[in-house]
Amino acid sequence: MISTAIRVARVGSAAELAAAALMILGFPAIMLAALVPSVYAFAAAAAVTYLADHYLHRKGSYLINRLSKVRAGLSIRFLIRQLLLILLLARLSLSDNLIFYGAIACFIAFYGLQAPHGALVTLIRNRRRMPVATRNVDLKSRIRIPDAPPRRLLHRSAEKMLHLDLAAVAGLLVSSVMDTAVAGFIGIGLTIGLGGLYVLALMPYVRGRKTPPKAEQVLAAVDDWLAEYKPETVLYFSGSKDSAYQVNMWLETMEQLDTRPLIILRERVILNNLAPTTVPVVCVPGGVHLMNMDLTTVRVALYAANVGKNIHLLRVPTMKHVFIGHGDSDKLASVNPYSKVYDEVWTAGRAGRDRYAIADVGVRDEDIVEVGRPQLAPIRTWQGVPEGRIPTVLYAPTWEGWDGNPGNTSIVLAGENIVNRLVTADPPVRVLYKPHPFTGTVSKEAGAAHRRITALVEKAAAERAADPRFTVDTAAQDRAKAELARIEARLAELSGRSGDKGDEAEASRDGVVDVARHEEVARLRAEWNTAYWVAFPTWEHRVIKGAEPRLYDCFNVSDAMVSDISSVVSDFIASGKPYAVTDSAEVGVEEFKRQNTAVRAAVILSNSAAELGGLLDAVRDPAADPLAADRKELKQYLLGPDEPTSIDQFNAAVAALALKSEARNAGQETRLAGANVDPAEAAELTNAVPGQRLPSAGESDGVTA
């Protein structure tokens, strides 16, 4: 029942639900206490509403946003509480007392301060929002960007300002039970005085040297940096907050390019969710600003998603445009007809080329280039189960999805059968259970199944730990745990040292990555992963929760995997290890393989998981594995050859396309020179973008796709 209420109210926990209930019920309680009247009951109910409101704001509860939509927002809640306090004073027969009029005057004046406070906060934020936000771009030497206002002034500023009424409310309540009005007037003075000081503290940040330069100066500084840096290859991305992973997966590849890379983002929310990188990043929300940036040295533009805003860069003819996507699979998104707009489409292997040919969406075969998947480089090729260690099987089911399709995940219909058969296997195997982080967010059945599977794995782990056949190297584990503690402390220290920048403008000014620190963090994370797997026995069943260890790290310590139709399977194929996929919808083995290319070399499981023996046999005796050759062939078909490496193929594709771009530009210059066009005009025509122009004074930067 509680879980249902949490889901309906869209709160994150039972504590949030309780706080929401207390806040909502608290206001009728305040009114009742005012009518009775009871000062102590009023004070208790008011305290509950203050604390519950503060807790929900601190948690960023969805309910707070919903209350503002039904005219019960933050200001209204505070105003109601203050009006009920006036009612309490009247019911206590204090309406003829000076303190009564003082309370009314206080709350009117207090709300009079809200307007300049809100205006100043909005003005400061708007003036500090630059037209371009950057990372790893040297703006500091080109323009003066002042420090952000102290975080305490702007963070949750409306809530802080309104809470200054606490002094007046407390003082008035004290005065209502005493014969003197001194406490009430002290509280009133504190509320008005602190409110006035808050407004005065904000005023210096709206003018003079405490504001960033105007948009024209910022854009000129970015162009000056571009002219010096001369980027050659751009990764362009636009999307929602939830799609940030699509650009994050390409960051390491961009760092390994042979050409000078640049990342162009279109939404500030993506920049805020971008993983650390050494590549220069420019976030340009405005279409006109983007089209007027000096990108004349760029020869190749890479696109990770098909979105409308791509048109703002696609219209630049001096560079070649490539769709690289964010994963190769049999999903419809992998053959989007939008892909016709690009000069080339890059796929991992032959499967991507065939996918476009079958879909017949207008992408020509000669425009498709196979470049492998550089992101899969950390996945190690299987060399068999190490001597002296029992096999490890990873169970990594995907989540239930939004549509209720039983074929989405095995966790509901087959999960317990799979894990039961694995933990009772003879000879024994170790089970690693790593569920999708979204498991149970839509389906309560999936959530319940996940909890049962977790309990099953943990019970099996406890039973194995008590089995004398399985020994523990306590000294090695203690050393590994000590190493984990050391690494985690150092990572926390490095994280604290970097700190959060005051705001976007300050982050742009100071956002040049410390390369040595960046490399140390990467090294420490690799060391943490090694120590993690040594910190417990190699036979111990384990539930892998959270982001660490990462999925690819789990791949590398496993000898086989059981999963569902998802990109997890396609990525695991890079290891060459045996794998099984569950046909949860029970469409049949042949039809299942026909529909899903990635399972053609898999052991196909029914919901009973009776076929798991075939997977375990392949792990224990690789020489007798009937699917080994099929996996090798499928790996090359889906992901391309092992040699040259994928990053080498990717760099070669970039270089080849850059030459085509240079040839096009040279051809344009030759043609215009033959037509006796003025050199300056010829340069403009070569780089011309249809409809491009500078925005006039006061014009909105609102180009739309």
Strands ordered across the widest β-sheet: 1-4-3-2-5-6-7-8
Strand content: 5-15%
The overall strand count is 14
Largest sheet, described in full? 8 strands, mixed
Please compute the radius of gyration using only Cα atoms. Answer: 31 Å
Mean pLDDT, to the nearest integer, reads 89
What is the helix fraction of residues, given as a range?
40-55%
Secondary structure blueprint with pairings:
Blueprint: H1 2-9, H2 14-35, H3 39-58, H4 62-69, H5 74-91, H6 98-128, E1 133-135, H7 151-154, H8 157-162, H9 165-176, H10 182-202, H11 215-229, E2 233-237, H12 244-248, H13 251-255, E3 261-265, H14 268-272, E4 281-283, H15 287-291, E5 300-303, H16 311-314, E6 320-323, E7 344-347, H17 350-359, E8 368-370, E9 392-396, H18 415-423, E10 430-433, H19 444-465, H20 474-498, H21 504-510, H22 515-534, E11 542-543, H23 551-557, E12 560-563, H24 567-572, E13 579-582, H25 589-595, E14 603-605, H26 612-620, H27 628-639, H28 646-674, H29 679-686
Parallel strand pairs: 2-3, 2-5, 3-4, 5-6, 6-7, 7-8, 9-10, 9-12, 10-11, 12-13, 13-14
Antiparallel strand pairs: 1-4
Helix pairs in contact: 2-3, 2-5, 5-6, 6-9, 6-10, 9-10, 18-19, 20-22, 28-29
